[in-house]
TrEMBL record, chain A:
Matching SUPFAM superfamilies: Folate-binding domain
Superkingdom to which the source organism belongs: Bacteria
InterPro entries: SoxG, TrmE/GcvT-like
Source organism: Halomonas halmophila
Ranges in a coiled coil: none
Name the record gives this protein: Sarcosine oxidase subunit gamma
TrEMBL record, chain B:
Protein name: Sarcosine oxidase subunit delta
UniProt xrefs under Pfam families: SoxD
Originating gene: soxD
Species this chain originates from: Halomonas halmophila
InterPro entries hit by this protein: SoxD (IPR006279), SoxD_sf (IPR038561)
Origin superkingdom: Bacteria
Gene Ontology BP terms: tetrahydrofolate metabolic process
Sequence segments annotated as region (Disordered): 87-119
Length: 216, 119
């Protein structure tokens, strides 16, 4: 299970073959607070995408960009608040800070990817952290999705200010979230595991007037 | 509710995302061992607390999490400019002694950084 890229850094696969059940950060919430199914009147639909591979990349933009191009054929978004997807739309990389990016890939890919990035980065000054266990992705769709966000985040989500391909870290109710806009119709919230219950219940409450439903 | 321009995010952001972190441009004594108690005490505890132009550090806590500097008027609360760490303020109070920092040559501040606050 434990592979190493070089002698200095031990990396390990957080997904094991052992038969241990894994639960989404919202598992308890679904049981306790329920998940109303969306119907034809639902103007907002919530959908969690748990167990994705989340890697935090830190370091200089130039070396990280080179490594990402060679390993994933994706370029690093240099512009603040920008979010890029690969052709399949399954992998994304987002600017978080001048020296930090968030890479989200299909679950299970992250360990091999991390190792290949480490190899490509060699002796460069960088850090890669697997943060997949600490956060989850919640999708928000529907005609009232942005209205629901207006009640929840302090950031201006008007399309002129928040075009497709933008992503910001901001305040959601009393929590912090990463809010992203991958397409015209879909919003993504990257939520910390420990705040997932709070954010989910806030969305259900704030979305009640739009007949919010949860797709599972 | 007001907006502060984050020089790293390159846009105005809600004040709730920021925290003030005290006076800026306080250089740590190069050789603490040779400091007198008074010099060290000054460095550690004593701040200027001016009425008027003040340079202070803030952090974009819920955002890019970077520290940066703000020139602010403590009497009117007006934010006059924001600039990155390592840069020098373009607005200073000429009635007081100049800052004793200047380690690296000042990079030119982009013009859009000068507008620190937007109602
Ligand atoms: Zn910022």
């Amino acid at each position: 299970m434990s592979n190493t890229v070089d002698d200095k850094i031990k990396t390990f696969d957080t997904r094991t073959d052992a038969n241990v059940p894994i639960e989404s950060p919202l598992a308890y919430t679904y049981r306790r607070s329920g998940a109303p199914a969306p119907d034809k009147n639902s103007k907002a639909v919530l959908h969690e995408r748990p167990f994705l591979g989340h890697l935090t990349l830190r370091g200089g933009a130039i070396v990280l960009d080179e490594a990402l191009r060679s390993v994933l054929d994706m370029s690093l978004p240099a512009e603040p608040q920008s979010l890029l997807f690969d052709a399949s739309g399954e992998r994304s990389v987002q600017w978080i800070s001048p020296d930090e990016w968030l890479l989200i890939v299909p679950g299970g890919e992250e360990f091999e990817l991390e190792n290949r990035l480490r190899e490509a980065l060699g002796d460069a000054h960088f850090a890669i952290t697997n943060v997949g266990g600490g956060q989850t992705v919640v999708d928000l769709e529907g005609e009232a999705a942005s209205e629901l966000l207006m009640k929840s985040v302090i950031y201006d989500v008007h399309p002129q200010h928040f075009p497709v391909g933008k992503g910001v870290t901001t305040v959601f109710a009393k929590a912090s979230v990463i809010l992203r806009r991958p397409s015209e119709t879909r919003w993504e919230l990257v939520v910390r595991r420990s705040f997932a219950d709070y954010v989910y219940r806030w969305l259900l409450d704030a979305g009640a007037e739009y007949g919010i439903g949860v797709q599972r | 509710m007001f907006y502060i321009y984050c020089p790293y995010c390159g846009e105005h952001r809600e004040e709730e995302e920021f925290h003030p972190k005290g006076e800026a441009h306080i250089a740590r004594p190069a050789d603490p061992e040779s400091c007198s108690d008074e010099e060290w005490g000054d460095y550690l505890f004593f701040r200027t607390n001016p009425r008027g132009i003040h340079h202070e550090m803030w952090v974009h806590a819920v955002g890019c999490r970077k520290f940066f500097n703000i020139t602010r008027n403590t009497a009117t609360y007006a934010i006059l400019e924001t600039y990155r760490m390592g840069e020098q303020p373009s607005i200073t109070d000429d009635t007081r002694e100049p800052l004793e920092v200047a380690q690296t040559p000042t990079e030119t501040t982009p013009a859009d950084n000068l507008e620190g606050v937007r109602a």
